């Protein structure tokens, strides 16, 4: 009795019988595949659509140990960190813009009770790359309002704290130039990589983006009236001596209902791709400081008016 052939292939030769040698696989006629010398170069398009490639997520937690594989983890190890880049910030070297979305707090929206602000930090494709949460006590939040001091932790998708922002209590009056707003940025926590300090000006919101030694590296300047009435508010980023804009922090219009009844804000940050990754982290801190200084108090006032009206 002859051995059965491959299912669905009546003309295919049967399996070899025990003791018989199997015929070799057919040799390709030439060219790729089969001829390594004619393989396409790395990055060669294999016919897929070549649009803007999606930026990868931050590496997530590796799966647990696999019992069928000797107890070894089956996750993929992250690539080694570039030299001089704080751990957890490797992803920032690949992008030139990020989006920051404040999460809606229902308790705060309905009764006006101030809670810790929480944010999602995303890339230009809407993929979450970091998350941020304010840390302070209830009394500080509800008594000091938008001027309150806080620590803010920024974590990656592996729940590792990669950035810490420290904001002390300061005044915002233009008549107090000795006690202006500032924020310290640490990456990783415990290692200072820069500061954001408000520059005194009677009308314009101006800030210095400083390095770890307090040296000014960049400047931020906003409009005379930081109010987004049906439009975006842009804070332009320039070199330390001014000049043309090289980036910006934009408070984006969130829609009438959100702007009136909540203090939930959306921001976009644009910066040069080759900017030092530590300065990118400091610009993230500048965005949060701007939110608290100019847009948090607007939301608080709207909430109080809606509650007591």
Quick description:
With 309 residues, this protein is α+β, with helices and mostly antiparallel strands.
Task: Describe the secondary structure blueprint for this structure.
Layout lengths: L96 E6 L3 H6 L6 E5 L5 E8 L2 H7 L5 E7 L4 E7 L14 E5 L5 E8 L6 E5 L5 E6 L11 E7 L2 E11 L3 H6 L4 E5 L6 H32 L1
Antiparallel strand pairs: 1-2, 1-12, 2-3, 3-4, 4-5, 5-6, 6-7, 7-8, 8-9, 9-10, 10-11, 11-12
Describe this protein's structure.
The chain is built from four helices and twelve strands. With 309 residues, it is α+β, with helices and mostly antiparallel strands. It has a domain of 213 residues: Tubby Protein, Chain A, CATH 3.20.90. It has a twelve-stranded antiparallel barrel.
Give the key terms.
single chain; 309 residues; alpha+beta; Tubby Protein, Chain A; twelve-stranded antiparallel β-barrel; globular; disordered C terminus; Tubby-like_C
The radius of gyration computed from the alpha-carbon positions, rounded to a whole number of angstroms, is 28 Å
In CATH, the topology of the domain at 90-302 is named Tubby Protein, Chain A
Percent of residues in beta strands?
25-35%
The assigned CATH architecture of the domain at 90-302 is Alpha-Beta Barrel
Gap between N and C termini, in Å? Answer: 94 Å
Per the principal axes of the C-alpha atoms, what is the gross shape?
A: globular
What topology, given as strand order, has the largest sheet? 1-2-3-4-5-6-7-8-9-10-11-12
Alpha plus pi helix count: 4
Portion of residues in helices? Answer: 10-25%
Structural class: alpha+beta
Number of strands: 12
Cofactor: Ca(2+)
Region (Disordered): 1-81
Biased composition (Pro residues): 10-27
Function: May mediate accelerated ATP-independent bidirectional transbilayer migration of phospholipids upon binding calcium ions that results in a loss of phospholipid asymmetry in the plasma membrane.
């Amino acid at each position: 009795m002859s051995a059965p052939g491959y299912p669905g292939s009546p003309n295919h030769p049967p399996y070899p019988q025990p003791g018989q040698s199997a015929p070799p696989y057919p040799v390709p006629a030439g060219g790729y595949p089969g001829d390594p010398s004619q393989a396409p170069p790395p990055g060669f398009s294999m016919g897929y659509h070549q649009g803007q490639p999606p930026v990868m997520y931050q590496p997530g937690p590796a799966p647990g140990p696999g019992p069928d594989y000797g107890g070894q983890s089956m996750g993929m190890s992250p690539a080694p960190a570039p030299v001089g880049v704080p751990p957890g910030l490797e992803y920032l070297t690949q992008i030139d813009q990020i989006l920051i979305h404040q999460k809606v707090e229902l308790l705060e929206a309905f009764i006006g009770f101030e809670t810790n602000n929480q944010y999602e930090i995303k890339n230009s494709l809407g993929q979450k790359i970091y998350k941020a949460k304010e840390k302070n006590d209830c009394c500080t939040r509800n008594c000091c309002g938008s001027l309150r001091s806080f620590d803010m932790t920024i974590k990656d998708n592996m729940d590792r704290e990669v950035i810490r922002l420290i904001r002390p209590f300061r005044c915002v009056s233009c008549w107090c130039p000795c006690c202006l707003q500032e924020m310290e940025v640490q990456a990783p926590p415990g290692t200072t990589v820069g500061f954001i300090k408000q520059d005194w000006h009677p009308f314009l919101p101006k800030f210095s983006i400083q390095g770890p030694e307090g040296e000014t590296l960049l400047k931020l300047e906003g409009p005379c009236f930081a109010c987004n009435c049906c439009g975006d508010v842009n804070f332009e980023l320039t070199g330390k001596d001014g000049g043309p804009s090289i980036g910006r922090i934009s408070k984006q219009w969130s829609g009438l209902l959100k702007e009136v009844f909540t203090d939930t804000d959306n921001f976009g940050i644009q910066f040069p791709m080759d900017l030092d990754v530590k300065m990118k982290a400091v610009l993230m801190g500048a965005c949060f400081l701007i939110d608290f200084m100019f847009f948090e108090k607007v939301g608080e006032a709207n909430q109080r008016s809606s509650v007591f009206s």
